[in-house]
TrEMBL record:
Residues 1-116 form the RCK N-terminal domain. It comes from Kaistella yananensis. It comes from the Bacteria. Transmembrane segments: none annotated. Gene3D superfamilies: NAD(P)-binding Rossmann-like Domain, Regulator of K+ conductance, C-terminal domain. This is TrkA family potassium uptake protein. Pfam families: TrkA_N. InterPro entries: NAD(P)-bd_dom_sf (IPR036291), RCK_C_sf (IPR036721), RCK_N (IPR003148), Trk_Ktr_HKT_K-transport (IPR050721).
Length: 232
């Protein structure tokens, strides 16, 4: 996949590097030439641009980009300006960093659906989320095993856990299922609310929108995600 990461501070730089190591093409953008020079050997491309200047930002290859991440964290105004410009230039998937609750509220009002909180979430975790299709959340228990939340692949809609054979076929344990409920936010937009189902009934068919909570070896999890998404 192809990404543009705007803002090469600690979080943005770490995210750009980890996405690159996972085999993605990454364009890093920052207004500091020093930061750009320091990273140009570590990621696919590094460009010195003012992210608040719509004219210069218009030259980036948005048409061929899957996701744009606004990782600016030291300047709320610059983050909001850059987000607004990207919203206009790249109407596909946009992820922006929230510095505080008020900033997050503004981003929600701008219809930004995916918001990063670097103080709570690591760059490595976000690199995995972005690189593995369907991955919602991951909790690494060791270098080998993790608990992950994965959106139910389309091929499994209407099937029960016993029919999918998580343990026998994929060597994974289905811990539980999370149902997604919807409620209105103060801006009239739909926000997602989780409802954990507890102990799974292996005979109950899974529904579109369900999130699977799986435990297993990291390699088996990657194989499950790759095989499930490739058949959709």
């Amino acid at each position: 996949m192809k990404y543009i990461v705007i803002g090469l501070g600690n979080f943005g730089l770490a995210l750009a590097e980890k996405l690159t190591k996972l085999g993605n093409e990454v364009i890093g953008v920052d207004s500091s030439m020093t930061k750009v020079e320091s990273v140009k050997e570590k990621i696919s491309h590094a460009i010195c641009l003012d992210a608040t200047d719509e004219y210069t930002m218009g030259g980036l290859p948005y048409k061929d980009t899957d996701v744009v991440v606004i990782a600016i964290g030291e300047n709320t105004g610059a983050n909001i300006m850059a987000t607004a410009i990207i919203k206009k230039l790249h109407p596909n998937r946009i992820i922006s960093r929230a510095i505080d609750p008020l900033h997050e509220t503004i981003l929600e009002a701008m219809d930004i659906h995916t918001i990063i909180h670097p103080e709570e979430e690591t760059a490595e975790k976000w690199a995995k989320k972005l690189s593995l299709k369907g991955l919602v959340e991951s909790f690494e228990l060791s270098g080998k095993y993790s608990i992950v939340e994965i959106r139910l692949p389309q091929k499994f809609v209407g099937k029960s856990p016993v029919e999918i054979e998580f343990r026998a076929k994929y060597n994974l344990v289905l811990v539980t299922v999370i149902k997604i409920l919807a409620e209105k936010s103060i801006f009239g937009k739909v926000k997602r609310v989780n409802e954990v189902q507890g102990v799974v009934n292996n005979e109950t068919p899974l529904e579109k929108g369900d999130i699977l909570v799986l435990y297993g070896d990291n390699d088996d999890i990657k194989t499950f995600i790759r095989e499930s998404s490739s058949e959709e």
